[in-house]
Structures are given as structure tokens and as C-alpha cells.
Design brief:
Radius of gyration: 24 Å
Largest sheet: 7 strands, mixed
Shape: elongated
Order of helices and strands: HHHHHHHHHHHHEEEEHEEEHH
Number of helices: 15
Number of strands: 7
């Protein structure tokens, strides 16, 4: 359609003139594109850029990533959150090296078979690195399309997904799919933002039905989601002879492969102190006595929130056994700094561990 052709031309001209100068846009190396897409899955560009640069400097190609220990990969990823992304990067790198002789699959369908690569990431990598004409549809692209066509139905439904998929295919530039996909994402990230879109700066505003009808601020719509649960968690900080007891979470599961101070959820009607005693029995098979509340830290995950209560605790009987972790370690201060840990544990260490002091000084 002529309308779609004009849309592509205006959008691509704007992108080539105004796109941010980002390192992964200076290459068609599929490894670099892949790492950037995984980092940006749950992270803003300004936050993700230094992590991308550090990750590529440490693991410059798929072979170096595949051969690295998982713990080193997690430590390099530390602070980005959503650690399953790092674990899947590592698993996928090993699969590319072992099953594909270090050569990346070239199509979205093949890329989607690798761990951690969903439909959006597969399409982005295939279009940018290999020129496959397949649309990459993320939240930014859905928002742009919803406003362009004044789509006023909830976008988190199967019906909406079909609409976005078919519309994105129709809009896609068959000759420049990688640039087009990046242009759509760039438009959504910088101009067609969730609140107060800058319609006066939009290169395709003339054809936007939401702008014409004055509904841009109300779109896209979503079905309401239930409020995320809030958990209270006690954490035991046990120190003996300058070393602190930490456990490594099982690789499969939330925060897998990361080291943490032991603890767990407070049960209904249970005091914080009693919960800590119970958790030490269940997780470590030791008797512990809570002594001092060192810190209270709030942290949010995608689908729930937690408040963590870090207690200084003393072991009074028993030898620690890893019932909830796949390994336990007595770690001195230097070792703690080098272990990959969840963000909430890192917040605690930064609060209570100045460079030349103990946790309890």
C-alpha cells in the first residue's frame, strides 16, 4: 500500500538521521546484537550500555562466553537483575559452540530454539544481523502501532497479539528489515513514549490516527492486573572468625547460581526472630540465635515485592548443611566482594561494609 510505503520511507529517514549512536548498531556481528538484545529485554538503554560494554570486553565472542565458568558470567552480569538472562546466555553460547561449531543460526525460527531467545529477540537478531524480513514486536512497537491505528482494545489479549503481528508484517520494510525494526523501537523509546508522547517531533505523526483523534495519551490500553504479592523475608548474617556463611542458590530457579545469606519467608503470625530460627533449622540444620536487626531492605521483582530483614545471628549448635542451596561457603570480606549475589544482598553489603571495616563494626 502507498500509505505504508510512505510510512516506511519517513520512519527510516528519521532513524538514519536521528538514531542514537549505540555500539551494537555499528556492527552486524550476531553475537554483539544478541548480547545487546538480551541486556535490553528488561533494562533501559542508558542503564544497559555500560553493562554491554563490560560484558563484551570480558567475553568478546561466543567462544569466550561458552568457555567461561557460569559464576564468572553471573559476576559480570551482577547488578542487571533478571539473572536467568545471564544463565541462558551462557547455555546458548555453549550450544552454539557445541552444536553449531560457533556459527549462529541465521533465521528467527532457528534462533528461537536457543535458550532465552523468544520470538521478539529472535526476530530482532535475524533482521539486524542477517537481514531476514521478520518483524520484531516489543512493548515499544505495540505502543506505536496501537496509536498509529487508534487500537483501543486491551493489548494484553490473544486477539490483540494477532492484530499486532499482522499489522507489523504489513508495515515492515522488506528491503531494510533490521533498520526498520530498530526504527520502530527507537520511535517508541524516544518519541512515542508511554506518557505525554512528543507528537510534535514524530516523523510519522501526519498518519497517526490517535494523534488526529486526540487519544494518544489514553493508548495503549491494558486489562488490569492483580496487585503483586508482598513477602517478608528474614536473612541470617552469621559471622565466625572473620568469615560469613553464604549459600549458592540452585541453578534452576529464581536467582539461580547466585550466592546469598541464608533465610526465607516469614509465615503468617510468625515473629521475625522465630522465622529466622526456623529457617536456619530448615535450610542449614543448625540452631541459631538472632541478635541484632542490621538492615531492612525493600526490593521489587517482576511479579512480587519483598522486604528483607537482615539479622546478625549467632550459631549455637550444629554444623551447616546445604538443604536449600547446592553449596555453602564461609566467605571472608574479599571473597564476598567477588561472589555474584542478588541485588538485595548487594544493597546490604554496600550499606554495612565500608572498605576497611567488618560487617558489624
Amino acid at each position: 500500500m502507498r500509505r505504508y510505503r510512505e510510512f516506511r520511507e519517513k520512519l527510516l529517514a528519521w532513524f538514519r538521521a536521528e538514531a542514537r549512536n549505540l555500539p551494537w548498531r555499528q556492527t552486524s556481528n550476531p553475537y554483539h546484537v544478541w548480547v545487546s538484545e538480551v541486556i535490553l529485554q528488561q533494562t533501559r538503554v542508558d542503564q544497559g550500555l555500560p553493562y554491554y560494554e563490560r560484558f563484551i570486553a570480558r567475553f568478546p565472542d561466543v567462544q569466550s562466553l561458552a568457555s567461561a565458568p557460569l559464576e564468572e558470567v553471573l559476576k559480570t552480569w551482577e547488578g542487571l537483575g533478571y539473572y536467568s538472562r545471564a544463565r541462558n546466555l551462557h547455555r546458548a553460547a555453549r550450544l552454539v559452540v557445541e552444536a553449531h561449531q560457533g556459527v549462529f543460526p541465521r533465521t528467527a525460527a532457528e534462533l528461537a530454539l536457543l535458550p532465552g531467545i523468544g520470538p521478539y529477540s529472535a526476530a530482532a537478531i535475524a533482521s539486524i544481523a542477517f537481514g531476514e524480513p521478520v518483524p520484531a514486536i516489543d512493548g515499544n512497537v505495540r505502543r506505536v502501532i496501537a496509536r498509529l491505528f487508534n487500537y483501543d482494545q486491551p493489548i494484553n489479549t490473544r486477539q490483540a497479539e494477532a492484530f499486532f503481528r499482522e499489522t507489523a508484517k504489513s508495515l515492515l520494510s522488506p528491503s531494510h528489515p533490521g533498520d526498520f525494526n530498530q526504527a520502530m523501537m527507537e520511535l517508541g523509546a524516544r518519541i512515542c513514549v508511554p506518557r505525554k508522547p512528543s507528537c510534535h517531533l514524530c516523523p510519522v505523526a501526519a498518519g497517526c490516527l490517535a494523534r488526529i483523534r486526540g487519544t494518544a495519551d489514553t493508548l495503549p490500553r491494558k486489562n488490569a492486573r492483580p496487585e503483586s504479592p508482598h513477602h517478608h523475608v528474614v536473612v541470617a548474617v552469621i559471622e565466625e572468625n572473620g568469615a560469613y556463611l553464604v549459600g549458592r542458590r540452585p541453578e534452576k530457579g529464581l536467582l539461580g547460581g547466585l550466592w546469598e545469606f541464608p533465610g526465607g519467608k516469614v509465615q503468617p503470625g510468625e515473629s521475625l526472630e522465630n522465622a529466622l530460627v526456623r529457617e536456619c533449622r530448615e535450610e542449614l540444620e543448625i540452631e541459631a540465635r538472632p541478635e541484632t536487626l542490621l538492615a531492612t531492605i525493600d526490593h521489587a521483582y517482576t511479579h512480587f515485592r519483598v522486604t528483607l530483614y537482615f539479622y546478625r545471628a549467632r550459631r549455637i549448635a550444629g554444623t551447616p548443611v546445604p538443604r536449600a542451596h547446592d553449596a555453602l561457603l564461609w566467605a571472608d570480606r574479599d571473597t564476598l566482594r567477588n561472589l555474584p549475589m542478588p541485588k538485595a544482598n548487594l544493597k546490604f553489603l554496600r550499606m554495612l561494609q565500608p572498605p576497611e571495616t567488618s560487617l558489624f563494626s
